[in-house]
Design goal:
- The complex is a heterodimer of chains A (201) and B (217).
- Chain A is α+β, with helices and mostly antiparallel strands.
- Chain A has helices at 7-32, 55-59, and strands at residues 65-68, 73-81, 88-96, 109-114, 131-137, 144-145, 157-159, 164-172, 185-196.
- Chain A has 2 helices and 9 strands, in the order H-H-E-E-E-E-E-E-E-E-E.
- In chain A, the strands form 2 sheets. Chain A has a 4-stranded antiparallel beta sheet.
- With 217 residues, chain B is an all-beta fold.
- Chain B has strands at 15-26, 33-37, 53-57, 79-81, 97-100, 109-123, 132-142, 148-158, 169-181, 185-193, 201-204, 213-216.
- In chain B, strand 7 and strand 8 (148-158) form a beta hairpin.
- The chains are: A alpha+beta (201), B mainly beta (217).
- At the A-B interface, helix 2, strand 1, strand 2 and strand 9 of A face strand 1 and strand 9 of B.
Amino acid sequence: MDHSDNQPRRRRRLALILPLLAMVTLGAGQMSLALFTDSETVDAAFGTGSVDLDAARIDALVLTSTAMMPGDSITDDVVVENDGTAELRYAMTTATTNPDGQALRDVLTLTVRQVDTTTPGTPCDDFNGSVVLAATPLGAAAAGFGDPTAGADTGDRTLAAGSSETLCFRVSLPSGTGNAYEGASATTTFSFDAEQTANNP
Amino acid sequence: MVLGAGGGSALAVFTDHEQVQATTSTSPSFGGTTYFLHNNPTPPTGNTSSQANLAMNTTPPTATTLHNYDTDRDSAPGRLIQRGGSGAGETSLARYQNWRGPTAGLLGQTINGTVTVEFWSAMEGFAPNTAGEVRVFLRDVDSVTGLTLEIASSTVSSADWQAGNAGWVQRSATFSVNHLLLVGHRLEVKLVVGAGAADDMLFAYDTVLYRSRVRVL
């Protein structure tokens, strides 16, 4: 078979095909960049919650008393309110001074109850709500409930965001207090420490 | 106060801290004589209408409930005294309250020292930021004739009687007294609410918690 007559024909075909292939290749490349696309955006605001004890309401706890005699007590209510946006748990601790060395703090007792069950409108006059802290000598730092260290502790009290509770505090000088405590004084600091409950087991 | 999270430790949680202080002091002496202000009957067992002359004696209160001592005037616990009483001679029962001590015996009774009248009180409705004024009179009363002699007086006042307290507040008036109650005479304490009070005032007594009293040292 003589192929010599076909070679020019093949060359002509190749000369025609190669440009076509080049055009097709180029076209294909251009088409791969021509995609339908779209883009949307959305804003996200990241805010934190808060735990916030109402300072003014804590300040309204008035237990200062003068000239106490054995058998005397002073009682007042305190509203513990969570003004924050997250649930909190709180503890209450005390620190009592002994400025005259008479150790009055060792005989004064602190009792804490929930609001009266009979007349909650007058929160603590009957002092018959559930016991939160049984009568406990103040000591240097002996009386309190809960624990301010992080995490849930026995005695901690929980408040949802925006909620509050009324507690009744009573400081008593027991009837049997002896004359060694005449003319004595002590100052007690009541501390309320709150922490978030979320992610804080 | 809102506090942010602490450092980067595992204990970094949102926290808050508030505190309040209270100072407690005892009487300079646990001795002397203490007369507790009572209602009638005592110990109280229920509400009563107001009564002019109540008893004060050395028996401590035992009641735990503060009843209404003037059902003829209001429905609130304690005794309401209207403001604007004229003084020791006030005769309107709405505007004063008396307590009278034991009758002096044959040798009479000398009161020589510091007399302190401690009373529990409140503005009507426990209204905050309201001026209060209580006038306290010590008088010598002849039990037979009813004649009275003023021994001493004092005014206790405050521009904010409640001072942030939503309940009863304890106040006191102190006198330096040297007086002989003759046989048959009695010591009387009279409380009047002065015109300086912005409203009527309530008084609590004869309960374990509200031990209003007169101390003679």
